[in-house]
Amino acid sequence: MKITIVGSGYVGLVTGACFSEVGIDVECVDVDRNKIENLNKGIIPIYEPGLGEMITRNMDKGRLRFTTNIAKAVKGCDVIFICVGTPPDEDGSADLKYVIQVARDCGKYMDDYTLVVTKSTVPVGTSLKVKSAIKEELKKRNISIEFDIASNPEFLKEGAAIEDFLKPDRIVVGADSTRAEELLRNLYKPFTLNGHPIIVMDVVSAEMTKYAANSMLATKISFINDIANLCEIVGADINNVRNGIGSDGRIGNKFIYPGIGYGGSCFPKDVQALIKTGKEYNYDLQVLKAVEAVNKKQKAVLYNKILNYFNGDLKDKTIAIWGLSFKPQTDDMREAPSLEIVNSLLKAGANVKAYDPVAINEAKHHFGDSISYYSDQYEALIDADCLAVLTEWSEFKIPNFKIVQKLLNSPVVFDGRNIYDKSEMLKMGFDYICIGINTIK
Ligand code: NAD
Question: Locate the UDP-glucose/GDP-mannose dehydrogenase C-terminal domain: which residues (predicted)?
Answer without folding.
Answer: 320-422
